[in-house]
């Protein structure tokens, strides 16, 4: 499986960053450039243990649907989500929120595998890892701006 980690310093308490990361509307805002919308959202409008969500987005000019489940919520230390249906052979995203004297270090670790065996592995190595890293970094920038403005 391919993987990467992105870290971002956010000048806010871990509780605030954790809550923002569980907000599906903020996720939609951060993925606006990819035409991502929430087709089916979590009950109550916020992610909780076992919540599922289905997203529709356009990547590489192709429309995709991805359904994921949220699990292992440990407030405010982190949570995980993984694809249960969608374009990847496997996809897991671990979110960690580490206390820091200046606020919170938000650490996103993504592990994924594209379909189609060796061809998918080559795509992951040459293209997908960097594409997803930028996408996660974009998401983090929007989340950080939102949390830091509301302080």
State the strand order across the main sheet.
1-7-6-5-4-3-2
Q: What fraction of residues sit in β-strands?
A: 35-45%
Q: What number of domains?
A: 1
Gyration radius, to the nearest Å? 15 Å
Q: Helix tally?
A: 3
* CATH homologous superfamily classification: START domain
Q: How many strands, which pairing sense, and closed or not: the largest β-sheet?
A: 7 strands, antiparallel
Structural class: alpha+beta
**Helix content percent band:** 25-40%
What do we call the CATH topology? Alpha-D-Glucose-1,6-Bisphosphate, Chain A, domain 4
Tell the overall outline. Answer: globular
Distance between the termini: 38 Å
Named CATH architecture:
2-Layer Sandwich
CATH class: Alpha Beta
User: What is the helix/strand order?
Assistant: EHHEEEEEEH
Poorly predicted runs of 5 or more residues: none
Overall pLDDT level: 95
Instruction: Give the tally of β-strands.
Output: 7
What key attributes describe this structure?
151 residues; alpha+beta; Alpha-D-Glucose-1,6-Bisphosphate, Chain A, domain 4; seven-stranded antiparallel sheet; 3 helices; 7 strands; globular
Gist of the model:
This protein has 151 residues and is of the alpha+beta class. The chain has helices at residues 14-21, 24-30, 117-149; strands spanning 2-10, 37-40, 52-59, 62-74, 78-85, 90-100, 103-113.
